[in-house]
Design a protein that fits this description.
This protein has 430 residues and is of the alpha/beta class. Helix content is 34%, strand content 15%.
Length: 430
């Protein structure tokens, strides 16, 4: 029997078999979950904790050594360029232990084959200590720490398994990072509560020592019939071939941020940032928007014309179309059965990614800020346009307000950039 296209099976000394994969046609990214959905916290708004229900009751939620090796080897081989970026998330990846990541790094060095390998690590920060941070520093991991602002706003939702607050433990984790000179940024979930206090959140993050700020707006729908049948409390993301829902206001969770508040949150912080912090504090939305104004490539998938190059790997080797699409119907296969390239370049993924562009409602296609917005993440496109067409982002109003509000300053910074001056020079011109 001839091997499957792109596969060359090789026998290992222990008689196990791994697959050599041809590189993918273009770079792609995998968010890796070595502990699956397990976490030591019980954040009230977390969309991933309930994914435990999608696995057998006796599931062992930790990536095996065999699977880790197959993944590291296959992922490095699948990248068409000389840079390979690993991203470790969860759940909570620190639950896997430092020894797991020592193995991962050793395997990366073993299979690098001349490529440069880098690692990013997203954590709630509560379990970081001297051992962890010395390792993260020595191996040059970029660490993202989840923190939702000052203590009273963070602790409103981000509690541990006993319902106790976690802000103090997160700050201790940041102190360990600073002690060991670990490069870190912060990820803030913008929810219904902290969205009401934009400058308080912004100042708290800067006070914590963060100069790279990621804001992730939270919106989750309550369970529909399909997800409720799986025992889940949150709805699946809408799919292009799903029947259109009846026209009604979407039923979102009580912690989901509303569009008006989100727009105000971004605009208030932007006004402070553009006066005082350009070039000193980096905010994901602001930097990505400026990139769109100057025609720079890249940027977050939510703002891209198409998606489909950001996959998610579960602890058991199952690969999914996206971190927000870890549901059975979006499973691409298992890395012990197919190569990562085969799944990343599949027709299924190509269609999945193109649907982001091809299903945009007319209101989006004709919008003056489409070049920057990209229509938002398909997961969030469950609202109706002013003309009654389904598929508008729930946060459309927020993004439209921000892009319009920031346009004058963005144009000035783009002009500075094109003339060879730093965009930060705008601070002396306001």
């Amino acid at each position: 029997m001839n091997p499957a296209p792109g596969l060359i099976s090789i026998a290992l000394e222990n008689d196990k078999r791994l697959c050599l994969s041809m590189p993918a046609h273009a770079p792609f990214h995998v968010m890796t979950k070595p502990m699956g959905p397990l976490c030591n916290l019980d954040c009230q708004y977390c969309f991933y904790l309930e994914k435990v229900k999608l696995f057998p009751k006796n599931e062992r939620f930790k990536m095996s050594d065999e699977l880790l090796e197959a993944y590291v080897k296959g992922y490095i081989e699948a990248q068409p360029g000389g840079l390979v970026s690993f991203a470790w998330q969860g759940g909570e990846p620190t639950l896997a232990g430092v020894s797991f990541f020592r193995k991962a790094v050793a395997l990366q060095k073993k299979y690098a084959n001349g490529k440069t390998v880098e690692n990013a690590f997203q954590t709630n920060g509560t379990l970081l200590d001297d051992e962890w941070c010395q390792f993260l520093h020595d191996e040059q991991f970029l660490v993202g720490i989840s923190v939702d602002g000052p203590e009273r706003l963070h602790d409103a939702y981000r509690v541990d398994r006993g319902g106790q607050p976690t802000w103090a433990k997160v700050m201790r984790g940041i102190e360990f990072c600073q002690k060991h000179q670990v490069e870190f940024n912060t990820l803030t979930v913008v929810n219904r509560l902290n969205s009401q206090y934009p400058l308080e959140v912004y100042d708290a993050l800067k006070d914590a020592g963060s100069t790279y700020l990621q804001f992730i707006p939270l919106v989750e729908r309550e369970a529909d019939d399909e997800s409720a049948g799986e025992g889940l409390d949150l709805a699946h993301p809408p799919r292009a071939d799903d029947p259109l829902p009846r026209r009604a206001d979407p039923k979102v969770t009580r912690w989901s941020v509303e569009a008006k508040a989100l727009g105000n949150f971004y605009c208030r912080i932007f006004d402070r940032w553009v006066r005082e912090d350009v070039g000193q504090v980096y905010v994901n939305l602001f930097d990505a928007t400026l990139g769109k104004w100057v025609g720079a490539p890249g940027g977050p998938c939510t703002m891209a014309e198409t998606c489909g190059r950001g996959l998610a790997l579960e602890h058991n080797g199952d690969l999914f179309a996206c971190d927000h699409y870890v549901y059975p119907r979006y499973r691409l296969g298992n890395i012990l059965e197919k190569t990562i390239t085969e799944m990343a370049d599949s027709d299924t993924m190509r269609t999945f990614g193109d649907n982001k562009r091809d299903t945009l409602p007319r209101q989006c296609r004709e919008c003056e800020y489409r070049f920057a917005c990209g229509g938002d993440c398909p997961k969030h496109r469950f609202a109706y346009t002013k003309d009654g067409e389904f598929g508008l982002s729930y946060h459309c109003g927020a993004y439209y307000r921000f892009f319009k509000h920031s346009a004058t300053a963005m144009k000035k910074m783009a002009t500075l950039y094109r003339s060879g001056q730093p965009p930060a020079a705008i601070m002396g011109k306001n």
